[in-house]
Protein: Diaminopimelate decarboxylase
Organism: Pseudorhodoferax soli
Amino acid sequence: MTNTPLPGHPHVHQRDGALHTEGVRLADLAATHGTPLFVYSKAAMLDALAAYQRGFAGRRAQICYAMKANSTLAVLQLFARAGCGFDIVSGGELQRVLAAGGDPAKVIFSGVGKTRAEMRQALDHGIACFNVESAAELDVLDEVARAHGSRARVSIRVNPDVDAKTHPYISTGLKGNKFGVAHDEALALYRHAARLAGLQVVGIDCHIGSQITDASPYLDAMDRVLDLVDAVEAAGIPIAHIDFGGGLGIVYGAPGDDAPPAADGLWQQLLAKLDARGYGDRLLMIEPGRSLVGNAGLCLTEVLYLKPGTQKNFCIVDAAMNDLPRPAMYQAFHQIVPLAPRADAPAVYDVVGPVCESGDWLGRDRKLAVQPGDHLAVLSAGAYCMSMSSNYNTRGRAAEVLVDGQAAHLIRAREDAQAQMRGESLLPG
Ligand SMILES: *Cc1c(COP(=O)(O)O)cnc(C)c1O
């Protein structure tokens, strides 16, 4: 019996000619639940979290899972039980945290466009902190909190103006970006916030981008943020917590890609800098998303048709851009592997879905030996897939299964057309 883990995916392995997640044969899951089907490994999520927990051993730290990466209730429940707080970006996400049994006192609220209603809702539940992204938002939050009869705990998201060297759509820490407050305006804004009766300054935060594969932008951003902490505290405004955001990348396995640093190794470097600058005993917060769930998930899909062409061969599968939007949105790469490898000679295919868009592709120029009816696994599909999925083409969203050892739990039923039409109404007459 061979048992070969896939590189970068320690909980996905080939055993006896069949691909498994932990102890569960993926072909069995496809047969039971149909495809497209997201499959997550509980152990992979907890291992990814453990790397951060090791990194912060002996420190005062709160890990707030950035739940937009994957906001399925059972996933949130897993992280809540493991002690995580949550970084939310909408009132809807707060409701998900509550439904999953998460602690609102460990919730931080990010995002450039919080509405008054969302602010009130978050104040009602006593969240830990609002990460404020503009001067205008600060004033509105002050007004809402005073009317609410409470004080909103705030952190200002500063834009350290460092280049995270990632895809422009997922780079957030540069000057031309909509996120955060410019470094040279932050001190004045802190002084302003400290004078507002509806606010209580508790922290500072930054988030420089996503799928970052290099430690240096983090180290640069930390220096810039600590320079500001020096200045804000010199102005008599104490900063209780420092939040370094999320953004650590994962291995997607594209040819020539850089491997990101491990979370514990990265934090060793960052903590050394914090210690050297005298901030090692502050309450530290982080907001990782992708790195906690990305490589814990894959998407099973069935090959529907092979369509050979003069310029391209197409492998048409039943998963599409509405299930796996990252290739269409960011030209992102996902590894695609057969569940049961065939001995036949492979051909080169573009793997595409049924959606009526040329942008509906999952992988380009992939060498595959496949036949209609075979199943493929699209790897690294735990983050920014289901949570970004849509009903385009009136396609129901996929089902989701969480594997725990030998057990497989259905955590989201496949969405049918009826569910999609709920809430719609026909014209009268
Ligand atoms: C999206 C986001 C994160 C998480 O980013 P990842 O790349 O998934 O780790 C953290 N903080 C904020 C403010 C975000 O918008």
Q: What stands out?
A: Residues 66, 68-69, 87, 110, 207, 210, 245-248, 287-291 surround pyridoxal-5'-phosphate (CB under 6 Å).
